[in-house]
Amino acid sequence: GTxxxxxxxxxxxxxxxxxxxxxxxxxxxxxxxxxxxxxxVAAGPHPSVVGQQPGQAYGFRRDGPVWQLAYAGVVVHLPxxxxxxxxxxxxxRPGVDVPAVELLDPAAGPELVAARRMGGDxxxxxxxxxxxxxxxxxxxxxxxxAAARGDARRTAGLDxxxxxxxAELRAAAGLAGRSRRLxxxxxxxxxxxxxxxxxxxxxxxxxxPGLAAHLRDTVTTGGTCRYLPPEPLPWRL
Length: 237
Description:
The chain is mainly α. Helices cover about 50% and strands about 10% of the residues.
């Protein structure tokens, strides 16, 4: 008879080669290769996480005329200001009441700080003291504004005027030779330091709102100032 037809071999589709459209998308990320991956590795971490590296979470440090401030991993730079110096002192002494007169003049010793906090004797009548106080407060405000602008000439002129007024006050009180004004040093320190810290926080509102909010919640100002966070933070100062 007729020999049986030769069985036809089953067709087997060839294994698909790499699809150029899917190159680099198969397999675990650890084996992804190619020029794009090489560039990604070389580029390092995304800029959004650079500020969250260990050791940069909480910092309040000054380098010459610039402060580097870090809170919760976000880092900003601000020019030097007296309010930032005040905050630096408070952050370095958490939970401690720091007299405003000490912040106003960090170089003063403890005896001088104590004398300034006590004030002077009530030698002048109330009306005269109020008049002198108002004049001195206006001068203090103008001195702070001129210093903040970097106007050395204006600052020196106002300092001279303030010195002359203090000399007049001492003479009127019969206290020639005493170097402290009557009962006004502690009040001036309270007012000036509070204004300086508030000004620093206003600037932080624009540059680092998170740090500004933290400091507002934890810093109190007045005759004494204090930084008291709910839990200690690892500040680099």
